[in-house]
Amino acid sequence: MKKILIIEDETSIAELEKDYLELSDFEVEIEENGKKGLSRALEEDFDMFILDLMLPDMDGFDICREIRRVKNVPILMVSAKKDDIDKIRGLGLGADDYITKPFSPSELVARVKAHLARYESLTSVDPMRNDEIKIRGIRIDKTARRVWVNDEEKAFTSKEFDLLTFLAENPNRVFSKEELFSTIWEMEPEGDIATVTVHIKKIREKIEYNTAKPQYIETIWGVGYRFKL
Ligand code: CA
User: Fold this and answer.
1) pLDDT digits (tens, 9 = 90+) for 24-51
2) How far apart are CA 137 and CA 135, in angstroms?
3) 52 Cα to the center of ligand 1, angstroms
4) What is the whole-number distance in angstroms between the Cα of residue 55 and the centre of ligand 1?
5) Co-location of 103 and 155 in the same domain
6) Neighbours of 225 (CB within 10 A)
7) Most CB within 10 Å of its CB: which of 62, 82, 133, 226?
8) Which residues hold their Cβ within 5 A of ligand 1, which is an ion?
9) Domain range for residue 205?
């Protein structure tokens, strides 16, 4: 049974979420205190977190960031304000999804199921095979450093491969050009971060059907890029 932790200080909302999730056979625990919720999130085994943004003692932004430092499981953020969604996106906290109050409990359940299913398919790895990432039409063989798009092999330079692989391994997370530059080029972002833009363009030409409407690597204006699941 999948175990979910709800960090939410409004008891009525937390209970409503819990009731609906339990009807769908999830095991659910509620933590009303942000700091305590964070420490439980880090210490115990949960398959997913539902995290309220406004908590009295610690805000959801910090909790999300701290959880993401050590855990890869899905995080769904809940907010009372629509404006917060842009902020969540902009900060690149690593939240997988966001929902605004009031929301329908069945929508919440549907999203939880979808995220858990995606996470499971991403993490199920056969150790005897080459280490592969498959996302829709793209298959990246990390062992052989080869890439297929809709079963057609495409040639990638070393840095293009590294960049694509890094984004695909961290789907739904927004990375700034600076972050990508320092990660892939392994140096401080004082060099030319326009290199990142150029590489993204070349990667898109190889993987996207229509580079004007990218299906895989999405531009988050003013922030950076995200690999869409
Ligand atoms: Ca709250």
Assistant:
1) 999 999 999 999 999 999 999 999 999 9
2) 6
3) 6
4) 5
5) no
6) 23
7) 226
8) 9, 52, 54
9) 132-227
Residues 28 and 122: their CA atoms lie apart, in Å, by 23
Q: Give the total number of structural domains in the chain.
A: 2
Token pair, residue 80, equals 């009372």
pTM metric for this prediction = 0.57
- Cβ 124 vs Cβ 134: under 8 Å: no
In the structure encoding, which two tokens stand for residue 225, read together? 């890029």
Say how far apart CA 72 and CA 170 lie, in whole Å.
9
> Does 208 lie in the same domain as 150?
yes
Please classify residue 71 by burial: count the beta carbons closer than 10 Å to its beta carbon, then call 0-12 exposed, 13-18 middle and 19+ buried: middle
Q: How far is the CA of 194 from the centre of ligand 1 (A)?
A: 40
Q: How far is the CA of 208 from the centre of ligand 1 (A)?
A: 40
CA of 34 to the centre of ligand 1 (A): 10
